[in-house]
């Protein structure tokens, strides 16, 4: 990492930390500069203003996230829809845990229904939805998925995937589990896969064999 | 409703609407006054300041919410743990839909991990957790629930219950469903109950009959 990239990364990390802690509106460039030990003028040099910084945060997060989806859906034909969806769940939960602050900030903003970069959010959610739809459609077609409503099942899955981030504090303080620790991440992945088996997958190995 | 109660309610409604839209920090008493068409001095008379207003919002929301839980868990012995948990799911999803703005604001703040009335939130979440734990324990004891990890199952259920609120905009704009319309509420309840059957309930009617 060269010095410029390092500085940029330090700014991003400080920004995400403060957005997560205090919210976007309550955070100033001065706060971010103080946290990152960087002159606010320098932040302006890289990102113009707080909105530019936010846009960069969102875009780089979602580009990486969409890569995760894309990589998995590329091999849909080889793996089949059940394997593919299970791998998606695994990779998304790992990705979110690795990018905890950004995920947390983004889900928070989504929940608050703020006008904050509405277009960016919906653009990426449309893409995300497209990938899942491809997998579900193959699952329905091959009768490996039950006849459920796609949007309702997707909303349920979204709830499962976002819970360890959105309810992170609740998990720590009330349930006494630590959803960012790898032991719990793996356990949660396992149980989310049980959820897929229990609500979505047609677990009839004979039919599955007949198709392969 | 007398005039005082009406005024108070108008202030609360305006406050929740603005907190939800702009976030707590970005909302001023002046904004609330403007929205409710009430003099800001009047708001100060009823609630002292913005924090007092917030505390009142949270407290009255959670008192009603805890009532919903309490009413259901009171009849746990009559209904058994499976029926009781299904009724809880139904009533919670209805309650949240009825109090959409408040639910949305509270989940958003939870996701952002803000220090906003941390104590109030954790006090009520501890209570909520207590009620669920009572139901799960009876379910485990009577072998009507599978041997799952309570905190992980609870986190999953929390994800299911919060999804229609947290992902409301996503539902509308990406999935084209309207999770506040009664058709979708009922459909979502049905599928959340499928989730319980698929991941938690031991569906062995023989054993169930033997116990009753």
Automatic annotation (TrEMBL), chains A, B:
Any Pfam family hit: TetR_N
Keyword terms of this UniProt record: DNA-binding, Repressor
Entries under InterPro entries matching the protein: Homeodomain-like_sf (IPR009057), HTH-type_Tx_Regulator (IPR050624), HTH_TetR (IPR001647)
Residues in coiled coil: none
GO MF terms, alphabetically ordered: DNA binding
Domain HTH tetR-type: 5-65
DNA-binding region boundaries: 28-47
Entry-linked NCBIfam families: septum_RefZ (NF037937)
Stored PANTHER family: ACREF/ENVCD OPERON REPRESSOR-RELATED, ACREF_ENVCD OPERON REPRESSOR-RELATED
Protein name: Forespore capture DNA-binding protein RefZ
Organism: Peribacillus psychrosaccharolyticus
Gene this protein is translated from: refZ
């Amino acid at each position: 990492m060269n010095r410029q990239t390092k500085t940029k990364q330090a700014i991003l990390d400080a920004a995400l930390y403060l957005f997560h802690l205090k919210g976007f509106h309550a955070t100033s460039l001065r706060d971010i500069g103080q946290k990152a030990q960087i002159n606010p003028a320098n932040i302006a040099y890289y990102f113009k203003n707080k909105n530019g910084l936010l846009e960069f945060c969102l875009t780089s997060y979602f580009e990486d996230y969409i890569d995760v989806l894309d990589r998995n859906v590329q091999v849909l034909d080889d793996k089949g829809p059940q394997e593919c969806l299970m791998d998606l769940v695994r990779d998304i939960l790992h990705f979110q845990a690795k990018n905890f602050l950004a995920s947390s900030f983004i889900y928070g903003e989504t929940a608050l229904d703020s006008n904050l970069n509405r277009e960016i959010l919906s653009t990426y959610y449309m893409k995300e939805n497209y990938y899942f739809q491809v997998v579900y459609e193959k699952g329905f077609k091959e009768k490996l998925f039950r006849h459920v409503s796609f949007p309702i099942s997707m909303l349920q899955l979204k709830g499962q995937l976002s819970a360890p981030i959105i309810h992170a504090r609740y998990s720590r303080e009330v349930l006494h589990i630590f959803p960012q620790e790898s032991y719990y991440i793996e356990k949660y992945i396992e149980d989310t896969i049980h959820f897929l088996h229990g609500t979505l997958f047609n677990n009839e190995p004979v039919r599955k064999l007949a198709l392969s």
